[in-house]
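Hey, can you fold this one?
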Amino acid sequence: MRTQRAAFKDGIRCGDDHGARAADRLADRPDLRAPIAPGPSHPTGRSAAAVRVRRLISQVAGFDTTVLILGESGTGKEGVARELHRLSSRADGPFVPVNCAAIPAELMESELFGHERGAFSGALSLRRGRFELAEGGTLFLDEVSEMSPQLQAKLLRVLQERSFERVGSGELRSADVRIIAATNRDLDAEVANGRFRGDLYFRLHVFPIQLAPLRERVEDLPLLIDSLNEILGLKGHGTVTFTSAALASLANYGWPGNVRELENLLERLAIVAPGAHLEAADLPERFCLERQHAAAGAGPLVQPVPAPLPAEGVALRDLVQRFEDDLIGQAMARADGVIAEAARLLGIGRTTLVEKLRRREQASV
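Sure. Predicted structure:
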């Protein structure tokens, strides 16, 4: 089977040249095509962002240092946490994940620290908490920013004293665990707004690892697709491959759901078209800019006439961003703030425009 790395090198354009530029980065860098050196295998990819994260993992994995993983939803924070555990001296111990956003606040203390029989109504038997279950291993606190203020205080005490008490017990128990926490929120802003304790933040923020969103490392798409296809195959699903035009179309997409969204797309396509080699036209509409233009009645894509390059060069990323912001502003003004109409004028999907507006608002704060 031809890998997606080979297809992506062709760099066929779909909508604009973003995917082709990513393909050029892959084609012009032999080191991006060479085998990955032994060491961390997550995150998948050979982009500068992926290489940087793997380097940080290698540097800190062997220590019991507390790690804080930062990144948008779907960027692979738990995968990084598992890789840190796998490469640590605690690899033979348990890896215990806790989704702090999924557990009701009134149950969270018992979930983390356990409880004695009769500690509260309904506590019919002794229950070990996640700290005990992670003894000798790693405790991964996902979405740690969603903890209530009361639980933040208790977690701070455990980090300081390395001990805890079950609910309903006065006996101190040692906490021989390595703590890895993660969040998709801006914790500096959460602290400034009083929603997260500053002292806990500094206890967790010993060794931060920032994960890049997929839209900032689209050159990793071929390797990610190959890797996810392998996982689908192990699950008994079919797999799909893409033409270079389809890959360039995927590179143009904003990926608000990041790698998780890519995984979901591949699984869906593998179910409806197992074994297919897909063209850009086979992709769902939101993933192809040209189809969005056609659906919006915007006509063919307009290719901008390039201006002469100044002798001193340009900051291309900033220039493109200003150009995009200006056009979005004009479209929103002409549409009287109606996002669907502005999206039609720009020839993009409504969800794509909403995501761009959200990023503009965050950048202006």
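The two ends are 47 Å apart (CA to CA). Let me know if you want another pass with a different chain boundary.
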